[in-house]
Structure formats: C-alpha cells, structure tokens
Write a sequence for this structure.
C-alpha cells in the first residue's frame, strides 16, 4: 500500500475515535465527568488516557477533528519510523503533565492538548531534522498555526489553556529527546563532493573560461 494512503487511513482512524465516542456515549456530560481529567485527583487519573474522547459539544468535537487528522497525518508521513512513539508521548505525556501542573478541581476534556503536542513537535522537529522540505513545512505550519501560541495563556474562559500548555511541553520535549533517532533518516544526504575534496570542482569556474 502507498505510504501516503496508509498514513491517511491511520490519521482518519485516530481522528474519528473521539467522534465515535462522542455519539456512542450520550449524554456526553456524564461521560466527560467520568473520563475527563481532574489534575491531582487520583480517581480521575484515567483521564490521562480517555480525556481526548470527551468533548463539551459537537462544535468542540469537530473543531478538533480536522486538526487532529492533519497533525497525525504529518507525523505518520514524515516520522513514520517513530510515529507510534511520538503519538504515545503526545497522548499520554500531555495528560500526565496536565495532571501534575493543572489547577485542582478543574475538569479537562478534549483532544486539543494532543493537537498542541503534535504541532509543537512537528514545528520544532522540522527545524532540527536537517531536512530542507521539513524545514519549509515547519515555516508553513508556524505561519498558519502560529496564532495557537495564545492558547497556552489564561486569557479565555472555559478553555483548557493548561491542557494546551501541557501539550506544547510534551511536543517540545519529544522533539528534542527523539532528535537523535529521527535525524538518522530525515537528514539530507551530503553531496558526493563533500567526501572527496580532490575531485571537487567549482561549479562557477566555467564563467571564467574564455573559450
């Protein structure tokens, strides 16, 4: 199967999991309380794994679905050798960080934390990867999603800014920690003349010839 088509199938499957959970477990408010994450509350520790499946309403759900699909797709396209590890870190790491740094007695739901983790990873890893195409992709993501940075500050009510911040931390740390492994298959190959300076010829020397 073509790697692009396979990545699309995987991304679509992951992105639709919260959609299925949303319409399967109604009323969503009860499901959100039972499986959402409350920082510091051990009884809600399962929210580390199930928080992304719970959403406040359909607007909240579909607002995250396309971004989740796009983020997962780019990870499985460009970092497929480490894609499972990257997804696990964003999914579980975001929840664990939120569990320890979030405000107690506040209920957190939704997959936006994972989305912040994915795009934080993609932007930073693209610059670290040593690959021209990934560097260009990072610039484009930064231009398009740069405004998401405001989501990690507590200026908007009823928005899990702590979840966004936790995702950004998980994405940033994973991009740095995993760089040793993904650079081995993302780094651009050096040209042949780099390894044998004796055979190298200045490509611009022909402009100095008179014949």
């Amino acid at each position: 199967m073509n790697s692009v088509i396979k990545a699309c199938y995987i991304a679509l499957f992951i992105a639709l999991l919260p959609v299925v959970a949303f319409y399967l477990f109604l009323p969503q408010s009860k499901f959100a309380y039972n499986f959402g994450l409350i920082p510091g509350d051990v009884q809600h520790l399962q929210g580390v794994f199930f928080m992304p499946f719970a959403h406040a309403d359909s607007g909240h759900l579909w607002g995250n679905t396309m971004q989740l699909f796009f983020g997962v797709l780019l990870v499985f396209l460009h970092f497929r050798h480490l894609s499972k590890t990257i997804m696990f870190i964003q999914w579980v790491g975001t929840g664990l960080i939120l569990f320890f740094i979030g405000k107690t007695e506040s209920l957190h739901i939704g997959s936006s934390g994972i989305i912040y983790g994915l795009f934080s990873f993609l932007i930073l890893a693209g610059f670290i990867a040593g690959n021209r195409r990934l560097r260009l992709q990072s610039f484009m993501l930064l231009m398009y999603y740069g405004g998401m940075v405001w989501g990690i500050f507590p200026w908007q009510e009823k928005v899990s800014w702590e979840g966004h911040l936790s995702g950004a931390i998980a994405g940033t740390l994973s991009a740095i920690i995993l760089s040793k492994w993904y650079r081995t298959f993302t780094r651009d190959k050096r040209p042949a003349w780099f390894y044998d300076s004796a055979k190298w010829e200045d490509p611009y020397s022909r402009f100095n010839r008179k014949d």
User: Anything to note?
Assistant: The chain has one domain: 3-187. The mean pLDDT is 87. Residues 129 and 183 are 5 Å apart (CA to CA).
